[in-house]
Design brief:
CATH topology of the largest domain: Uracil-DNA Glycosylase, subunit E
Number of helices: 19
Strand content: 5-15%
CATH superfamily of the largest domain: Uracil-DNA glycosylase-like domain
Strand order of the largest sheet: 4-5-6-7-8
CATH class of the largest domain: Alpha Beta
Bound molecules: iron/sulfur cluster
CATH architecture of the largest domain: 3-Layer(aba) Sandwich
Helix content: 40-55%
Number of domains: 4
Length: 494
């Protein structure tokens, strides 16, 4: 437990009076040593905390730990986060707080003005912010791995604090079915895609790495840069807010951020161009319309090499292009034959789809299955997907109520739909509901007026109809409403 210096139990006013406590410098290592010393009634000023990654705890330490006092749950949470801070004094601070909490100051954490409480709170906050940045700014790149058909996704990140273990659980839950590695200068963490349901599966940690050990690009990167450039709105740039939310130090590892300086530099000119174009359009309302950024993106995306749907689904599972990825369980990508003649596009996954990770498996999906069967269409022959790949919901007690995705979320998700269209290349697309139809056609669609007939989309036809959830909501699971839905599907197939 301790290297040997005098007076383990007495007052210690100088370094010479302190016991040197060696411990593995992580929360568990400190906790084990702290419990042992607390049980032995060693005062904070009698300890010099000496981090030692190779330290092996004495055999009796855990037994003594069992007799240690309890502390508020909030202290454990704060301590767990603050232990990841880079400040060298954090271990002594944690022990001093532990000591005070267990020696007559049980409600210490309620004193926000106390210097120790203020400091641990600040450390925990710094660490959580660093974790937040890691979640937001890690960018995985696909790397082919010998012996595997699917790539490993590798990312490089430079955290400010020692957060790799602390943050790893998030990435395991989020990317549970993929093989990935996150490399940092101090530690690396790896996951082999065992799935989160396997509770025995654990990520494993290794030593730090160098930046050149991580890939600095992959096939989809140029497409994402093109997309980012197309949605970048120079009229809405808040330069200081952007730098505060996305500190410049992270930019070098984010493909889209490479574009920011150039885009901002060109902002004034682009604002002027946009105003000029708008004036022309307002004045004329005729003639060739200027190419929209979306049209440019679509053209450039289609020019990319044809990736496999599996690879695309893997990339989509990493997507954090809008806020819907936060509360949802997982990305629900499309499924079906890669050469399907018909593609069916819904709005977004529902509660059951979000949990299952597959499209159209909930009540609306079952109604769709019945309608497809009635129209003589085999589900296995069509490609099923959604305009938005994450479930948007409003929590209501234990339930999660469907919430309609907004314009920005649909636009953020459109590149995935574009890729699916380019890869599957269906002759016809059945759009279930207005969100799907509008995402495909890039204009307002009045489904009740435009349903049941084809609308040209390049060389394809889009056939809008209602979403089966609309039939469920209006109690039209049978009868004329259902029959008309079946007729729409049949017409699209004809
Ligand atoms: S909803 Fe679409 S754009 Fe938003 S995070 Fe999910 S996959 Fe990405």
């Amino acid at each position: 437990m301790s290297g040997h210096q005098p007076s383990l139990f007495g007052d210690a006013d100088t370094a010479a009076d302190q016991a040197v406590v060696h411990f593995v410098p992580d929360f568990a290592g400190w906790q084990r040593a702290a419990r042992a010393h607390l049980t032995a009634d060693v005062a904070p000023q009698a300890i010099w905390w000496q981090p030692d990654p190779d330290h092996v705890a004495p055999a009796g330490q855990s037994a003594r730990a069992a007799r240690s006092a309890t502390v508020p749950k909030r202290f454990i949470e704060l301590a767990r986060a603050a232990a990841c801070h880079s400040a060298e004094d954090r271990w002594a601070l944690l022990y001093r707080l532990l000591w005070r909490l267990t020696h007559g100051e049980r409600h210490l954490l309620a004193l926000a003005g106390d210097a120790d409480v203020a400091r641990i709170t600040r450390y925990a906050k710094n660490v959580r912010r660093d974790v937040h940045k890691m979640k937001a700014f890690v960018r995985f790149r696909a790397v082919d791995e010998p012996g595997f058909t699917e790539p490993r996704y590798v990312a490089w990140f430079e955290p400010t604090h020692h957060i790799v273990e602390y943050a790893a659980g998030f990435f395991v839950r989020r990317f549970s079915n993929m093989r990935w590695s996150i490399l940092t200068p101090e530690r690396s963490v790896h996951w082999n895609g065992q799935g989160h349901a396997d509770s025995a599966a654990k990520p494993w940690f290794g030593p730090g790495a160098a930046k050149h050990d991580a890939p600095d690009g992959d096939d989809l990167e140029a497409a994402w840069q093109t997309y980012y450039a197309s949605i970048f709105n120079p009229a809405r740039v808040k330069w200081n807010a952007m730098r505060s939310e996305m500190p410049v130090k992270y930019w070098k590892n984010m493909p889209e951020a490479q574009l920011i300086p150039g885009l901002v530099q060109a902002a004034d000119r682009r604002v002027a161009d946009m105003e000029a174009v708008q004036k022309d359009v307002d004045a004329l309302h005729c003639g060739p319309r200027p190419a929209t950024p979306e049209a440019t993106t679509r053209a450039e995306t289609r020019a990319r090499p044809a990736f496999s749907l599996e690879r695309l689904a893997g990339e989509a599972a990493l997507c954090r292009a809008c806020g819907l990825c936060g509360p949802a369980t997982q990305t629900v990508f499309g499924e079906g034959p890669a050469n399907a003649r018909i593609m069916i596009v819904g709005e977004q996954p529902g509660d059951a789809e979000d949990l299952a990770g597959r499209p159209f498996v909930g009540p609306a999906g079952q109604l769709l299955d019945r309608a497809l069967a009635a129209a003589g269409i085999k589900r296995g022959e069509v490609y099923l997907t959604n305009a938005v790949k994450h479930f948007k919901f409003t929590p209501a007690g234990k339930k999660r109520l469907h919430a309609k995705p907004d314009y920005h979320e649909v636009a953020a998700c459109r590149p995935w739909l574009e890729h699916e269209l380019a890869l599957v290349d269906p002759e016809r697309v059945i759009a279930l509901g207005a969100t799907a139809a509008e995402s495909l056609l890039q204009r307002r669609v009045a489904v009740t007026r435009e349903r049941g007939r084809p609308i040209a989309l390049g060389e394809r036809e889009v056939w809008p109809t209602v979403h089966p959830s609309y039939l469920l909501r209006s109690n039209a699971e049978t009868g004329p409403g259902f029959e008309r839905f079946v007729a729409d599907l049949r017409a699209a197939m004809a």
